[in-house]
Amino acid sequence: xxxxxxxxxxxxxxxxxxxxxxxxxxxxxxxxxxxxxxxxxxxxxxxxxxxxxxxxxxxxxxxxxxxxxxxxxxxxxxxxxxxxxxxxxxxxxxxxxxxxxxxxxxxxxxxxxxxxxxxxxxxx
Length: 124
Description:
Blueprint: H1 3-15, H2 20-30, E1 31-38, E2 43-45, H3 46-60, E3 65-68, E4 73-75, E5 78-86, E6 92-102, E7 108-115
Parallel strand pairs: 1-7
Antiparallel strand pairs: 1-2, 3-5, 4-5, 5-6, 6-7
Helix pairs in contact: 1-2, 2-3
């Protein structure tokens, strides 16, 4: 397992952590202090903002779990991977990709999430 794999596995672990104290420790382990995370409906900055954003996701989607559904594509300090949010009955509620930027120490500095499939091209 590469360092990037470990970073993303920890990122997903914190997304699934419902205990605020354990989640906060995971946030500090995987994100930089000046981190920024942007998804279509939400955005946050810093340790507290990111942990609170995850807590809000758990409030809105109780019992749901995030899982990675692709490998991790990397170049330079950038990465991307696909994920799903799965309901307790196994239904996929939303799927998407996250595109991230890594700091020099291997932690996440920026993540931008996209939901669903890419839009069709008008040029086709």
